[in-house]
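User: Batch of two.

Assistant: Item 1 of 2:
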Amino acid sequence: MTKIRSKPVNEACFQNLQLLLKGKISFAEWERRQEELESRLTPAPELPFDGEDGDGPRTKAA
């Protein structure tokens, strides 16, 4: 599993919020930065794949 560095990301979120509240960045810019930072907190999903042949995702028969 990927190690998540939440403290630097949280600090960056607060810095961006301060910039927004002081009027130094637009809401659209704050939102763009926020989405980028939030994506760093969420690890990539681990998708189940069939063996080594790469046939795609496994599905369970009903």
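Item 2 of 2:
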Amino acid sequence: MLSNDFRIHNFSERPMLPIQPTDRKWIKPSRGVVKINVDTAIEEGKMGLGVIVKDEDGFDLGGYGCIKDMTFNSEWAEMMAIEE
């Protein structure tokens, strides 16, 4: 199977770029400030938009998601998500 071949390749070949573990965690904003996270996915003439808003305690204040029958580059798509 292809997945088995991929696994064997990964064990036998060194990666081209070194794998750097990253410690990612949510950092809360200052009191009275909200954090807005925007993301998009673009594929074959469609794009998915998503927005979530959190307060300083990590509480979800709101969110939005949709699929559009159009595409833009990722920067324009994220601006469109904020506008929605």
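Strands lie at 35-43, 46-54, 60-68.
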